[in-house]
Predict the 3D structure of the following.
Amino acid sequence: MNHFSRICVYCGANQGTRPDYLEAATDLGAEMARRGIGLVYGGGSVGMMGAIARAVHGHGGEVHGVIPEALKPKEISGSAIGHLEVVDSMHTRKARMVALADGFIAMPGGFGTFEELFETITWSQLGIHAKPIGLLNVSGYYDPLCQMIDQAIGEGFIRPSYADLLVVSPNPVELLDRMSVHHPPESVVQWVTPRET
């Protein structure tokens, strides 16, 4: 069993066009807090980021945001939610989020969410970390991405065993349950960076 003190959630600063997206963010945040799992996220208070942070915080959970100084005016409206760590760059932000978390979940989002997700998967493939990575596939949002991964495996660009680097579910409770018993393929685990405090 994997014990999660904190999970890093990647998601958009926008809320998308479907109410399902914000509902899923709220449900995931509430379930994380219920399980005593803290949130590490991009530090924003708007869109999907704000929804999950408010849900975790509102249910008594720990919230740790990490945001570059340059993005504060764009991604924070009103007061920060929980603890906010301001850093100097996007690179520092991503490295801190990875270091602080015991696992990762990507929710619907845009280019930034895609980039964070794929970097985290790549780091797992390279053995830089061995932390579970989940994909909350709300309303089939990530179906095309899952199909693209399957195609890359079929075309020989990704090893079949690497498909197991990603846990996919449309339901927050099921996703957390599956992540709690998930381990990446042993062939990719080379070294593990400790979680920071």
About this structure: The first strand starts at residue 6 and ends at 10.
